Amino acid sequence: MSAIIDDKVVAGAKSANIVKEDPIVALTEKVNALYFFRDHYFENHSIEEAIKKNNDLEKEMKDTLNKFDECKGYEIDGSRAKYYYLKGKALNVTERFIPQAEELLTKAVKLEPNLVEAWNELGECYWKNDDIQQAKNCFVGALRHGKNKVSLRNLSMVFRQEPIVNVEQRMQNIQKGVEHAKEAVSLDTTDGISWAILGNAYLSSFFTVAQNPAILRLCMSAYAQAEKDIVAGSNPDLFHNKAVALKYQEEYSLALKSFERAMLLDPLWETPRNKRDELLQYLKDVQNSVNNSGRVKPKRLYQMIRALDVKHLGPYKGGSFTSGQKTVKLDLILLKDLVLGLNPEKVIFGKVVCWIQDTDCVPFAFCLVDEEKTCIAVTVYNLAKGRGVTVGDSVAIPEPFVIHQKFSYLNNDFDFKSIRVETPVILVVNGRKLGREQEASAKLHTFKKTD
């Protein structure tokens, strides 16, 4: 009998606690649980269930909103700003823009202007609705009330997408984006989302400021840090953008796998699949062009090779060239004698037999054939739009850097060598060194789903 009475006492105590529970505390816990469900989805679901994630999240969101209905009326009883903020945040959990979320969050910041979290959520609302300027105002406003990683990393994204009036402003914005992302990381070095956004900032810098391999290395280092965080590591954006960076490092096998990971994490997002297929087609075209000397007919190929003349080595003809303050000795060698990696104090020479089209236009790629009919692919970075070489040109490349691609993917076998050229100004075309006007001053490129 006493046990039954004790049970009733305990049950009554629990009931009393529910009645006295602070609704704002309960709603905060419910909204936090909603975001945990989203960010840690793959801890409790297999990757095969990724296609269900959006629907599952919508259901969780509706369940969370029901909790707000239970607390209806509380918004006029002392904590209206927090109530509006929490409800707006709950509605903001999906990738789509929901006008009601904007309305609620606007009310929250008007009632409590120093509520940093509400400013950040409102900024994300505007971001989803493609209102970049209003989003920027929100994140800047949040920082006035307290430095925080969310505002900083979101401003990094805003600066990269903000409308600009000239190339100089674009480059300044990209640099601001890098600086804001760095500061966000410094506030919490364990936050993978901040690391991912820093990686994206470096990737934008690669396309806009200079296609410099050192910038790509910084980008890849940031992505590697991001992957250590289970939240960032469940985000398809990270793997899509990492794949883009890997492509320009010419780590093609890893790039294809990274695009595939993005596809698995979000089967409904078409961009990674399209980019994977485009890269695969590009690689097939390179392989086919190298195997078949650019598909040039034998007679035409013979004529092109016969037309090779050492005078077209131009400044490299004398067996040396000036690099900065020093003179570098050069020996002319055949393509077959190249070694992997850097070939110091060597120069190669051949005829352009074809271009290789790539939808992104970076790098500019062509095939080169030497006097022994050996064919190799050449990828040129930092080339100004509309510039390049044409079929039949004689091209000399000093100290070539050679990469060997050898891997299989989706029943396609790749086995070819390529020369990576970081700047076109080292090339000698038909006896003349290319001028600085051939070098890109800025390349703009949009590559991200939400950034």
TrEMBL record:
Keywords: TPR repeat. Coiled coil: none annotated. SUPFAM superfamilies: TPR-like. It holds the Pfam family TTC5_OB. The keyword Ribosomal protein does not apply. Residues 330-442 form the Tetratricopeptide repeat protein 5 OB fold domain. One of its GO terms (biological process) is cell division. It comes from the Eukaryota. InterPro entries: TPR-like_helical_dom_sf, TPR_rpt, TTC5_OB, TTC5_OB_sf. The keyword Metal-binding does not apply. TPR repeats lie at residues 116-149, 236-269. Belongs to the APC3/CDC27 family. This is Cell division cycle protein 27 homolog. The lineage of its organism: Eukaryota, Metazoa, Ecdysozoa, Arthropoda, Hexapoda.
